[in-house]
Amino acid sequence: MTAESVAPEPMWLVAANVVRWRRYGPGGQEFRPGTKSYRGGAKVYVMSTYGGMAHAEVSTIGRGRGSARWISIDMGSRHLHTFRAELVYSPAVLRRARAGWVASPTREEAERLAALLERLAADYRDTHYRTPHPTPCLCHTCLVTPA
Question: Which among 6, 66, 102, 118 is placed 20 to 30 Å from 20, CA to CA?
Answer without folding.
Answer: 102
